[in-house]
Amino acid sequence: MKAVISGSFDPITRGHVDIITRAVRLFDVVVVGVAVNSAKNGIFSMDERVAFVRDAVAHVPGVEVAPVEGLLVDFCTAQGAEAIVRGLRFGGDFDYELQMAHVNKAMSGIETVLLPAGREFGTISSTIIRSAASNGGDVSDFVPPAVAAALKERFGG
Protein backbone atom coordinates (compact mmCIF):
# COMPACT_ATOMS: atom_id res chain seq x y z
CA MET A 1 0.00 0.00 0.00
CA LYS A 2 1.25 3.47 -0.89
CA ALA A 3 0.64 6.73 1.00
CA VAL A 4 1.46 10.38 0.41
CA ILE A 5 2.65 12.87 3.00
CA SER A 6 2.49 16.38 1.66
CA GLY A 7 3.57 19.74 2.93
CA SER A 8 5.54 22.81 2.04
CA PHE A 9 8.48 21.60 4.16
CA ASP A 10 9.87 25.13 4.26
CA PRO A 11 11.96 23.97 5.97
CA ILE A 12 11.63 20.29 6.80
CA THR A 13 11.92 19.70 10.55
CA ARG A 14 12.79 16.74 12.75
CA GLY A 15 9.06 16.52 13.45
CA HIS A 16 8.37 15.99 9.75
CA VAL A 17 11.08 13.33 9.58
CA ASP A 18 9.52 11.59 12.60
CA ILE A 19 6.08 11.44 10.92
CA ILE A 20 7.62 10.19 7.65
CA THR A 21 9.64 7.52 9.47
CA ARG A 22 6.61 6.32 11.41
CA ALA A 23 4.38 6.33 8.31
CA VAL A 24 6.76 4.09 6.38
CA ARG A 25 6.21 1.45 9.08
CA LEU A 26 2.50 1.49 8.22
CA PHE A 27 2.75 1.63 4.43
CA ASP A 28 4.94 -0.16 1.88
CA VAL A 29 5.89 3.12 0.18
CA VAL A 30 5.54 6.70 1.36
CA VAL A 31 5.79 9.49 -1.20
CA VAL A 32 6.70 12.83 0.31
CA GLY A 33 5.03 15.47 -1.82
CA VAL A 34 6.71 18.85 -1.58
CA ALA A 35 4.10 21.50 -2.29
CA VAL A 36 3.75 25.26 -2.50
CA ASN A 37 1.60 26.87 0.18
CA SER A 38 0.49 30.25 -1.17
CA ALA A 39 -0.58 31.28 2.35
CA LYS A 40 3.00 31.09 3.62
CA ASN A 41 6.01 33.26 2.85
CA GLY A 42 8.59 30.67 1.93
CA ILE A 43 12.33 31.04 2.22
CA PHE A 44 13.57 28.14 0.11
CA SER A 45 12.85 27.34 -3.53
CA MET A 46 11.05 24.18 -4.57
CA ASP A 47 14.34 22.64 -5.74
CA GLU A 48 16.01 23.44 -2.41
CA ARG A 49 13.11 22.02 -0.39
CA VAL A 50 13.00 18.81 -2.46
CA ALA A 51 16.77 18.41 -1.96
CA PHE A 52 16.50 19.01 1.80
CA VAL A 53 13.69 16.46 2.11
CA ARG A 54 15.60 13.88 0.05
CA ASP A 55 18.67 14.39 2.23
CA ALA A 56 16.65 14.20 5.47
CA VAL A 57 14.97 10.88 4.55
CA ALA A 58 17.82 9.25 2.61
CA HIS A 59 18.29 6.78 5.48
CA VAL A 60 14.63 5.67 5.41
CA PRO A 61 13.89 2.81 2.98
CA GLY A 62 10.56 2.99 1.16
CA VAL A 63 10.42 6.78 0.90
CA GLU A 64 10.21 8.69 -2.36
CA VAL A 65 10.20 12.49 -2.76
CA ALA A 66 8.50 14.47 -5.52
CA PRO A 67 7.26 18.02 -6.09
CA VAL A 68 3.48 18.54 -6.05
CA GLU A 69 1.82 20.68 -8.69
CA GLY A 70 -1.92 21.27 -8.48
CA LEU A 71 -4.35 19.46 -6.22
CA LEU A 72 -3.07 16.98 -3.68
CA VAL A 73 -5.71 14.41 -4.65
CA ASP A 74 -4.57 14.58 -8.28
CA PHE A 75 -0.97 14.04 -7.13
CA CYS A 76 -2.08 11.08 -5.01
CA THR A 77 -3.95 9.54 -7.95
CA ALA A 78 -0.93 10.02 -10.24
CA GLN A 79 1.29 8.36 -7.62
CA GLY A 80 -1.12 5.45 -7.17
CA ALA A 81 -1.50 6.30 -3.48
CA GLU A 82 -4.33 4.86 -1.44
CA ALA A 83 -3.92 7.14 1.58
CA ILE A 84 -2.80 10.56 2.71
CA VAL A 85 -0.86 10.79 5.98
CA ARG A 86 -0.94 13.98 8.00
CA GLY A 87 0.77 14.81 11.26
CA LEU A 88 -1.08 16.46 14.14
CA ARG A 89 0.52 18.63 16.79
CA PHE A 90 -2.48 20.07 18.63
CA GLY A 91 -6.25 20.50 18.45
CA GLY A 92 -6.21 23.22 15.81
CA ASP A 93 -4.37 20.87 13.46
CA PHE A 94 -7.09 18.25 13.99
CA ASP A 95 -9.89 20.67 13.13
CA TYR A 96 -8.19 21.72 9.89
CA GLU A 97 -7.03 18.22 8.88
CA LEU A 98 -10.46 16.68 9.50
CA GLN A 99 -12.02 19.21 7.11
CA MET A 100 -9.35 18.46 4.50
CA ALA A 101 -9.78 14.70 4.99
CA HIS A 102 -13.50 14.98 4.26
CA VAL A 103 -12.96 17.10 1.16
CA ASN A 104 -10.16 14.87 -0.17
CA LYS A 105 -12.30 11.75 0.42
CA ALA A 106 -15.27 13.29 -1.37
CA MET A 107 -13.14 14.41 -4.32
CA SER A 108 -11.11 11.25 -4.79
CA GLY A 109 -12.06 8.44 -2.43
CA ILE A 110 -8.61 8.64 -0.84
CA GLU A 111 -8.54 8.05 2.92
CA THR A 112 -6.55 10.20 5.34
CA VAL A 113 -4.56 8.79 8.26
CA LEU A 114 -3.76 11.23 11.07
CA LEU A 115 -0.62 10.59 13.13
CA PRO A 116 0.01 12.51 16.34
CA ALA A 117 3.36 14.24 16.60
CA GLY A 118 5.93 12.56 18.79
CA ARG A 119 6.14 14.03 22.28
CA GLU A 120 9.44 15.77 21.61
CA PHE A 121 8.23 17.28 18.31
CA GLY A 122 4.77 18.59 19.20
CA THR A 123 5.80 22.23 19.43
CA ILE A 124 8.02 22.39 16.34
CA SER A 125 6.69 24.09 13.21
CA SER A 126 8.38 25.39 10.10
CA THR A 127 6.93 28.82 10.85
CA ILE A 128 8.59 28.93 14.27
CA ILE A 129 11.85 27.64 12.81
CA ARG A 130 11.83 30.35 10.10
CA SER A 131 11.11 33.04 12.67
CA ALA A 132 13.80 31.90 15.10
CA ALA A 133 16.42 31.45 12.36
CA SER A 134 15.66 34.82 10.76
CA ASN A 135 16.30 36.44 14.14
CA GLY A 136 19.65 34.72 14.65
CA GLY A 137 18.43 31.79 16.74
CA ASP A 138 20.16 28.42 16.73
CA VAL A 139 17.60 25.94 15.37
CA SER A 140 20.01 23.04 14.87
CA ASP A 141 18.19 20.85 17.44
CA PHE A 142 14.96 21.09 15.45
CA VAL A 143 16.01 20.55 11.82
CA PRO A 144 18.26 18.18 9.87
CA PRO A 145 21.93 19.28 9.66
CA ALA A 146 21.77 20.41 6.00
CA VAL A 147 18.78 22.63 6.79
CA ALA A 148 20.48 24.10 9.87
CA ALA A 149 23.51 24.99 7.75
CA ALA A 150 21.37 26.52 5.01
CA LEU A 151 19.39 28.59 7.51
CA LYS A 152 22.61 29.81 9.13
CA GLU A 153 23.97 30.77 5.72
CA ARG A 154 20.72 32.47 4.71
CA PHE A 155 20.26 34.47 7.91
CA GLY A 156 23.69 34.53 9.51
CA GLY A 157 24.20 33.72 13.15
Automatic annotation (TrEMBL):
Q: What is its main location?
A: cytoplasm
Cytidyltransferase-like domain residues are: 5-131
> What residues bind ATP, as annotated?
8-9, 16, 87-89, 97, 121-127
GO molecular-function term, one example from the UniProt record: ATP binding
Q: How does it assemble?
A: Homohexamer.
What this chain does, per the entry, is described as: Reversibly transfers an adenylyl group from ATP to 4'-phosphopantetheine, yielding dephospho-CoA (dPCoA) and pyrophosphate.
What is the protein name for this chain? Phosphopantetheine adenylyltransferase
